[in-house]
């Protein structure tokens, strides 16, 4: 089997006179033993010959793994996690969806790099992962913690492919309890709560509530709704786009799931839309399609070409509504006004590039269960209570599969009322 150990402090051959090996010029300098001669394996030096950290043990391991085609030089795993992510892993990522790219980058640079980035890749073990998880659980929700764990695992897996690690410390983890994403269980609002929140809003944005409850639209779909999307004759809304934030810029994009849909709506909602347009006509808004980055090819230029739509709802100063701005300036103030969340607290934040200068901002309590999505849950609740088929409700909500709708809204479905028993009786009694 290839490979040998060289003692660099003593000559290879004994003295012909004394019969003993002589000291070399390297005596007492550097590490004494060098393992060499294994094809594809870089030479490595050791201070000791015996023991688990000695040259003999490493030679045996390297020979075995080299023969099996599994050898990974431990020195390649000594790169810092931060450096590996920035220099190797991230530059090779290629996301078709810039929104996905922004999400992954945010998770990695917010929840992984600041806490584990200074460790060498092969030094991250169960102990370090446990400390990181404890920090993560105290600063992020279980869903975010679970996503961050999965991204870290993907980074380690890439390091294995790059022959920097032999195993993924996130895999087959029996010691640590990894956070799991909590099951989605939607809660509908009462009509009284819906109307109270709507009334507490600026009149300009009250139609958002009608569209959320009356058509089950997501907030981005509400902000991207144009006059051409309303079929007043057929009493339906065509959900064909949304307004998305990619980085700091807005774009038009397909609804979530990359598919359009039609939603039947009541006359009441159509009348509310007409009333809103009579007070505030639709405005032309132009945004890039799907990706705000400058195109690199002619094809990308065609795919990202700006689109113009006559939006029913726009920001107070014109242009498309930004979801984060709507959340902090319209939605949460309305929630606080009716007592769903506490009043905001004042916080001082430093002003960028102006040392020692601060501004006062109002910070509202996080309340995911009372986000705009609660209106969508209310829409689903009303439809299911009316015994609309789960497949139809799933289609109106834009879910990829009815099983998703069932998992989220099964608890809202009415109990059986004996109609099946009557149907069976009629079946038996029919000629």
TrEMBL record:
Biased composition (Basic and acidic residues): 290-306
Key words, A-Z: DNA recombination, DNA-binding
Domain Tyr recombinase per the UniProt entry, residue ranges: 184-425
Protein origin, superkingdom: Bacteria
Region of interest (Disordered), residue spans: 281-306
InterPro entries associated with the record: DNA_brk_join_enz, Integrase-like_cat_sf, Integrase_catalytic, Integrase_recombinase_N, Phage_int_M, Tyrosine_recombinase_XerCD
Alphabetical GO biological process terms: DNA integration; DNA recombination
UniProt cross-references to PROSITE patterns, sorted A to Z: TYR_RECOMBINASE
Gene Ontology MF, one: DNA binding
Recorded family membership: Belongs to the 'phage' integrase family.
Protein name: Integrase
Organism, as annotated: Streptomyces griseoloalbus
């Amino acid at each position: 089997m290839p490979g040998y150990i060289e003692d660099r402090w003593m000559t290879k051959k004994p003295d012909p006179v004394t019969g003993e090996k002589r000291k070399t010029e390297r005596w007492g300098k550097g590490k004494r033993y060098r393992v060499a001669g294994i094809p594809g394996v870089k030479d490595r030096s050791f201070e000791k010959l015996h023991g688990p950290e000695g040259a003999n043990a490493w030679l045996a391991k390297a020979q075995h793994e080299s023969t099996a085609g599994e050898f990974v030089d431990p020195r390649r795993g000594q790169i810092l996690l931060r450096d590996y992510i920035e220099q190797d892993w991230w530059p090779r990522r290629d996301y078709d969806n810039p929104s996905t790219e922004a999400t992954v980058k945010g998770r990695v640079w917010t929840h992984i790099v600041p806490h584990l980035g200074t460790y060498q890749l092969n030094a991250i073990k169960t102990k370090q992962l446990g400390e990181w998880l404890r920090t993560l659980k105290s600063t992020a929700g279980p869903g975010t913690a679970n996503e961050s764990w999965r991204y870290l695992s993907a980074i380690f897996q890439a390091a294995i492919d790059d022959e920097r690690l032999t195993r993924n410390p996130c895999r087959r983890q029996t010691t640590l309890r990894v956070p799991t994403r909590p099951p989605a269980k939607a809660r509908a609002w009462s009509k009284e709560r819906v109307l109270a929140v709507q009334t507490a809003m600026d009149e300009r944005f009250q139609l958002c509530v009608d569209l959320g409850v009356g058509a089950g639209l997501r907030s981005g779909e509400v902000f991207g709704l144009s006059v051409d999307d309303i079929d007043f004759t057929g009493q339906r809304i065509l959900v064909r786009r949304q307004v998305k934030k990619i980085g700091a810029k807005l774009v038009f994009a397909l609804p979530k799931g990359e598919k359009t849909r039609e939603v039947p709506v009541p006359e009441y909602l159509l009348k509310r839309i007409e009333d809103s347009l009579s007070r505030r006509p639709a405005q032309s808004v132009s945004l890039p399609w799907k990706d705000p980055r400058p195109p690199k090819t002619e094809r990308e230029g065609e795919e990202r070409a700006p689109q113009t739509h006559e939006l029913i709802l726009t920001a107070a100063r014109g242009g498309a509504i930004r979801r984060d701005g709507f959340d902090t300036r319209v939605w949460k103030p309305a929630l606080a006004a009716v007592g769903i969340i506490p009043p905001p607290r004042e916080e001082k934040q430093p002003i960028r590039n102006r040392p020692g200068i601060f501004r006062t901002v109002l910070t509202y309590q996080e309340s995911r269960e009372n986000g705009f999505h609660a209106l969508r849950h209310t829409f689903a609740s009303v439809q299911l209570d009316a015994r609309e088929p789960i497949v139809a409700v799933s289609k109106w909500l834009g879910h990829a599969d009815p099983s998703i709708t069932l998992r989220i809204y099964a608890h809202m479905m009415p109990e059986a009322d004996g109609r099946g028993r009557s149907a069976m009786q009629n079946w038996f009694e029919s000629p």
